[in-house]
Amino acid sequence: MTPKKILSFALGPVGGALLGFVSLPIITWFFSQEDIGRIAMLNVVVGFCTLLFSLGLDQAYVREFHEVSNKPALFKASFSPGLTLLIFSLCVLLSFDNAISLWLFEVDSKLLSLLVALAVLCAFMSRFLSLILRMNEQGFAYSMSQLLPKLLLIIIILGYVLFSVNKNITNLVIANVAAILLVFFIYALNTRKEWIAGLKEKLDPSQLKGLLSFGMPLIFGSLAFWGLTASDKILLKELSNYEQLGIYSVAVSFAAAATIIQSVFSTVWVPVVYKWAAANENLDKIFKVNRYVLLVVIILFCLAGILSAIVTFILPDSYKAVQWILVPCLGYPLLYTLSETSVVGLGITRRTGFSMLASVIAFGVNLLGNVWLIPKHGAIGAAISTCFSFWIFFILRTEFSIYFWKAIPRLGMYIYTTLLVLGSVIHALYANSLQNYFTLYWCLILMSLFFFFKDEIFESKSFIKNKISGMKS
After folding, report:
1. 446 and 393 in one domain?
2. pTM, whole model, 2 decimals?
3. pLDDT value, residue 217
4. Number of domains in the chain
5. Are residues 89 and 144 in the same domain?
6. Residue 472 within any structural domain of the chain
7. Signal sequence span per UniProt (predicted)?
8. Were 49 and a residue from 115, 120, 343, 352 both cysteine, which residue would form a disulfide, CB within 3.0 to 4.6 Å?
9. Quick check: is 353 in a domain?
């Protein structure tokens, strides 16, 4: 993948995050915390259904894409089983009066149930259509499908404000579903040749059987990882209230800016590292990349700890707790990204089942942590539990990779991540009364980098200086 294509794919996550920073404060000023919490539950359900009903066939499609000549037939075989099962399941659920809206939102509404069903259906179809764009390296079209819905959401919310439309859960769901619909229509338009050709193909039972045999085992690992990232929100709803869920979801949304790094890094890193491994060369660069990613992770954690109070200037007073929850919420995207550099051995040795085991164990830890901490601390407890669980996830992936492949220098990595997680947990619990001490704590960690990462800092400085000189010349 060329730098230009990488940039075209990165445009979507980066632009989407920027638009998210615009839309999020607007929503918090005009909608209640409870309604924002309800929207968080909508996103959880959409993500779960897309994952479950894909049956692992989305990953099977990616795996087989370059191996088959009849790509429309491959798409139909990958897409049809999950779609059929999803439509049947939605019909069954909709037949139980308003069970969907009652469980998700605690609101008895047929309209909301229908909107949720529509959102789930469109998100599922969008998932598979997006794979066509990704595999054909149509990065710009892929990015536009992420940017335009965020822009539409902002326009609809501003329209509510300008025209004094009721700021209730129904209208907020309508705005979000409209954005999901737009994603689907953009994907459908940009991939119309492929899916229309797929409709004309006959379903090959032998091909479907092969795809299912590859995809089905992957569901368990995917569901475990989904549980690791979503159990906090579900248990906040069940063990606390929508108000705490709303505060937590806002903090998670701000922390999601770090997923830009995760998304772009994963897009570039995975193909490159397997290329190095296949040629049995540049393996020393894997260790160097690990050091650089650790350096970035430490800097971002520390900056968040020092500057998190800034969010109070753009959010209503009722969201004051977001500034303390934000730091541990970075645990998911940043520790996951770091683990991608230390888990490569499992991919190289084809021991990916142990990566799934790491997800299962970390999910169990998160489940127990949430059950213990949420009743006592609400959103803060959920943030602490998830951050700690991703630290366990990171350590397990690293140790499994070392066991099956080769050792990597990790003492410094473990010391720093321990300091980051410990600081994040205490920050969330006590920063309200000890803010100045925590600012000093994060500053001291930053200062230590000039000693422990002096080579990386010097190399980065030289690289930037040479690039600037090259541009001037």
Report:
1. yes
2. 0.85
3. 76
4. 2
5. yes
6. no
7. none
8. 120
9. yes
Q: In Å, how far are 114, 274, 450 from 97, measured between CA atoms?
A: 11, 51, 62
What is the domain extent for residue 64?
A: 1-203
* pLDDT recorded at residue 471: 58
C-alpha span between 374 and 238 (Å, rounded): 10
Which 3-state string (H, E, C) describes the chain? CCHHHHHHHHHHHHHHHHHHHHHHHHHHHHCCHHHHHHHHHHHHHHHHHHHHHCCCHHHHHHHHCCCCCCHHHHHHHHHHHHHHHHHHHHHHHHCCCCHHHHHHHCCCCHHHHHHHHHHHHHHHHHHHHHHHHHHCCCHHHHHHHHHHHHHHHHHHHHHHHHCCCCCCHHHHHHHHHHHHHHHHHHHHHHCHHHHHHHHCCCCCHHHHHHHHHHHHHHHHHHHHHHHHHHHHHHHHHHHCCHHHHHHHHHHHHHHHHHHHHHHHHHHHHHHHHHHHHHHCCCHHHHHHHHHHHHHHHHHHHHHHHHHHHHHHHCCCHHHCCHHHHHHHHCHHHHHHHHHHHHCHHHHHCCCHHHHHHHHHHHHHHHHHHHHHHHHHHCHHHHHHHHHHHHHHHHHHHHHHHHHHCCCCCCHHHHHHHHHHHHHHHHHHHHHHHHHHHHHHHHHHHHHHHHHHCHHHHHHHHHHHHHHHHHHHC
How much is the pLDDT for 373? 95
- Examine residue 469 and state whether it is found in any structural domain, yes or no: no
- Pair 198, 223 in one domain: no
pLDDT at 370: 95
Same domain, 417 and 454: yes
Q: How many CB atoms lie within 10 A of CB 142?
A: 22
Amino acid at 299: I
Q: Same domain, yes or no, for 234 and 141?
A: no
Phi-psi region of 107 (alpha: psi -120 to 50; beta: other; left: phi over 0): beta
Residues 456 and 307 in one domain: yes
Extract the residue ranges of the chain whose pLDDT is less than 50. Answer: none
Cα–Cα distance measured from residue 102 to residue 375, given in angstroms and rounded to the nearest whole number: 22
CA distances from 305 to 229, 385, 471 (A): 22, 18, 35
Does 209 fall in a domain?
A: no
* Cα(98)–Cα(106) distance, integer angstroms: 10
**Which amino acid, 144?**
M
Task: Identify the pLDDT of residue 219.
Answer: 82
Residue closest to 73 by CA, chosen among 64, 83, 86: 64
